[in-house]
Design brief:
354 residues; mainly beta; Immunoglobulin-like; 4 domains; five-stranded mixed sheet; globular; disordered N terminus
């Protein structure tokens, strides 16, 4: 049985089991793949866990290669290693590599929509917003907001996207439980963040991270680390991060697989991040108090505020100032994309209104 492959990335949704059935708690430590000829355990190309870390007995993995075999039928092998260091048997499947497989089409997402429970038809759902304020990539991080959620209880959330050729993709559905009071927003701020490699040292015992803007004072923060956590061990490791709110509660850790190369000579400096020339606060904000827009240098600018359907609620050209107050009287509780347009540049902020 053959399968045609026309991309250099394979998303493998197989159930990869390492070790025997007698193992009560089996976690996958790493995975590898190879074409046609077995190079030996541990010598294949590494597989990447889709969720950033190998931590389950069943993993969804991604195999990537910039150099595919020659066009024709080939055998793709995969195997994984368990927590005890034992390699499982190799799983194989026949793949047909087509001529021009490395030529990737220029695919872009142009629009996204979502709906609750009942499909209203393509193009009739509620608009999803691109997290960066613009649909211009093949992969987009999207967010959906709603000031009016369904009644408390279990509902099905449907999502789909439109490509630049006007074609709607299939609907992705997920069961979501709407809790009472879901549209109320607590005053949450990030107060600290930390990171570590591999083994969790315990909450508060990791290496501190710094807020990119120099101050932890928002619900959404961009932060950065410094040196590589010691001890520095060459090879594939999991880099973990977590943040603390201003009530002292630590959130769940987020992990990503990194490859540390200790053969690099000299000093590898971490560049200083430039201070964002545009800031907005407070966030979350009260509708009765509005928000303040801060510019590093006074200049004429335009401000736009959108609703959950992408409709423009505010569109004003404002005079040059370093500090401008924007009233939000009458705004319902929810999250609003606020855009600051300055010459040919623009910045978008998700502002939570309580």
């Amino acid at each position: 049985m053959g399968a045609a492959m026309n991309s250099r990335s394979l998303l493998l949704a197989f159930a990869l089991i390492a070790g025997g059935l007698a193992t009560a708690q089996t976690g996958i430590q790493q995975g590898e793949y190879f074409w046609d000829t077995d190079p030996g355990n541990g010598n294949g190309s590494p597989l990447v866990a889709v969720d950033g870390t190998f931590g389950q007995a069943l993993e969804q993995v991604l195999a990537e290669t910039g150099t595919l075999p020659t066009p024709g039928a080939h055998v793709l092998y995969l195997r994984v290693q368990d927590d005890d260091g034992g390699w499982g048997p190799a799983f194989s499947t026949v793949i047909e590599v087509l001529q021009g497989s490395l030529l990737l089409p220029d695919i872009q997402v142009s629009q996204g929509e979502y709906f609750w429970d009942t499909d209203p038809g393509e193009g009739n759902g509620s608009t999803m917003l691109a997290f960066d304020g613009n649909y211009d990539s093949a992969l987009e991080t999207v967010r959906l907001e709603s000031s009016t959620l369904p009644a408390p209880g279990t509902h099905t959330l449907g999502l789909r996207v439109l490509d630049v050729n006007g074609n709607w993709g299939p609907v992705f559905r997920v069961v979501t439980e709407v809790l009472p009071g879901s549209i109320t927003f607590p005053a949450i701020h990030v107060s600290a963040a930390e990171y570590w490699a591999d083994s969790d040292p315990g909450e508060g015992a990791g290496t501190p991270m710094l807020a990119a803007d120099g101050n932890f004072d928002s619900a959404v923060e961009v932060f950065r680390g410094g040196g590589i956590p010691v001890p520095v061990i060459a090879g594939t490791q999991v880099l973990w991060m977590r943040a603390q709110d201003d009530d002292g509660g630590w959130g769940p850790p987020f992990g990503v697989v990194v490859n540390i190369d200790t053969t690099v000579t000299g000093t590898v400096a971490v560049p200083e991040l430039a201070r964002d020339p545009v800031r907005i606060g407070p966030n979350p904000a009260l509708a009765s108090e509005g928000i303040t827009i801060l510019l590093e240098e006074a200049a004429d600018f335009r401000v736009r505020v959108l609703d959950v359907r992408g409709r423009v609620l505010v569109d004003k050209q404002l005079p040059a100032a370093t500090r401008t107050h924007l009233p939000l009287d009458g705004f319902a509780a929810g999250t609003y994309p606020v855009g600051i347009l300055l010459d040919d540049r623009q910045w978008w902020f998700p502002v939570v209104v309580r």
